[in-house]
Write a structure and sequence with these properties.
elongated; mainly beta; 0% helix; 4-stranded antiparallel sheet; 7-stranded mixed sheet
Length: 118
């Protein structure tokens, strides 16, 4: 199982970026998918998650600016980030919770850097 993330980069404040993540080489069902981020010196925090039936949940800090979506047929989750702020600067990680029999296993992507300059 691999989570292949793409997108990210550098942008000025107020700009937009889009992150994508595809889960490959899996025969198991995927429950929640989501995006987390970690800034230097900080713990990893949830940014947005989306359930298998499409219900999203967002961190308060990104509500109204970020939109998470998923395509179950493609095992893909995306994060549209608008009105970016310097405090959004972090390494962003995609996550997928795989249902392996009766056990749920969390898998992580490699991380992609998002840098927002003021």
């Amino acid at each position: 199982v691999q989570l292949q993330a793409s997108g990210g980069g550098s942008v000025q404040a107020g700009g937009s970026l889009r992150l994508s993540c595809v889960v490959t080489r899996t025969l198991w069902g995927i429950n929640d998918m989501g995006w987390y981020r970690q800034a230097p010196g900080n713990q990893r925090e949830m940014v947005a998650v989306i359930s298998s039936d499409g219900r999203p949940d967002y961190a308060d800090s990104v509500k109204g600016r970020f939109t998470i979506s998923r395509d179950n047929a493609k095992n893909m989750v995306e994060l549209q980030m608008d009105s970016l702020k310097p405090e959004d600067t972090a390494v962003y990680y995609c996550n997928a919770d795989l249902q392996v029999g009766s056990v749920e296993i969390a898998k992580w992507g490699q991380g992609t850097q998002v840098t927002v300059s003021s």
